[in-house]
Amino acid sequence: MIKTIRDLAHTRVVAALTCVNTLCPDLSASGKRRMVNQILTLSEGKGRSIPPKQITEAQVVEMVWRNMQCINHGCPLLLFGKQLAEEINEFFAEPASLL
């Protein structure tokens, strides 16, 4: 198992180095080493801080109004957009990582 892990790690390093050599052939050795380390860090999922997409109160209100029908012409609509947006965002939030 350790050999397999070592082989996979070696393959990732070779792939990152090949990519850097192909894309930046004139980069200095230290620059290539830094770039390879950054690629490997990204491949491990570290350093990735992609903010979750959130729906806004205005977007919720617009979606509901656009898709609403009322048989009574003067039908009043009371919509709690902020609370609805929070509930939708909570529903679609990514689960907390167990690691």
Protein architecture, described:
The chain is mostly helical. The chain folds into 2 domains: 2-43; 57-92, no CATH class. It has 4 helices and no strands. It has helices spanning 2-23, 29-43, 57-66, 81-92. The longest helix is centred in the first third of the chain and has 22 residues, at 2-23. The two termini are 21 Å apart.
Ordered list of secondary-structure elements with their pairings:
Elements: H1 2-23, H2 29-43, H3 57-66, H4 81-92
Helix pairs in contact: 1-2, 3-4
Distance between the termini: 21 Å
How many helices? The count is 4
Spans of at least 5 consecutive residues with low confidence: none
Write the element-wise H/E pattern from the N-terminal end onward. Answer: HHHH
In terms of quaternary structure, what is this? Answer: single chain
- Class by alpha and beta content: mainly alpha
Please provide the count of β strands.
0
Please tell me the overall pLDDT. 82
Q: How is the biggest beta sheet arranged?
A: none
**Estimated radius of gyration:** 25 Å
Shape category: elongated
**Percent of residues in beta strands?**
under 5%
Specify the helix fraction band: 55-70%
Count of the separate structural domains: 2
